[in-house]
Give the backbone structure.
Amino acid sequence: MELKHVVLTPELYDYLIAHGTPPDPVLTEIEERTKEFGRYQIMQTVPEQGALLHMLTKLIGARKAIEIGTFTGYSSVCIARALPKDGQLLCCDVSEEWTRVARDAWEKAGVTDRVELVIGPALDTLRSLPQESDVDLAFLDADKVNYWAYFEELLLRVRPNGLIIVDNTLFQGEVVNPDTEHESARLVDAFNERLAADDRVEVVMLPIHDGITLVRKLS
């Protein structure tokens, strides 16, 4: 069967961004301040991902969310803005330096009262939470060596029909390269294989930016 797909050229990417809801000044400022971190700026959520996170949070009516890997706050602003006024977003990160930008952004976006930031190993934070299966949405965008461990802890706490969103699941296209020298690419590939075979969830992988996978908990 002939595949119908589009190669995303720089011109087509610009078109894609121009024909979606544009980032507002808060998000634009996050992008500018993140550039100060040099090579680490590649970790920032891009506009089309942020818009998707915001829309999905709204669509499922999420009230309680968790983010693993907050960095400078782009994704957390997108999620928190989509929560109701009494909603709650738990952000897990290990860097006070990076999350200072996020704290400023939460204040400017008017969502500080919806966000709790915990600095420390995310696995410790997750394991300290009750296993109540009351989380509506989780976004996983952190170190790849712990992806499966994070996923298992999140799955225990996400409600049936809740959503786990996993970033970097195509890892620069290296997941299909058997000779890749990227250890993270091999880890992500192994994660993807386990996830696709997991009968506890329904999975859709989207070729957005570096790959983003939507995981619906079945029961």
User: Anything to note?
Assistant: The chain is about 40% helix and 20% strand.
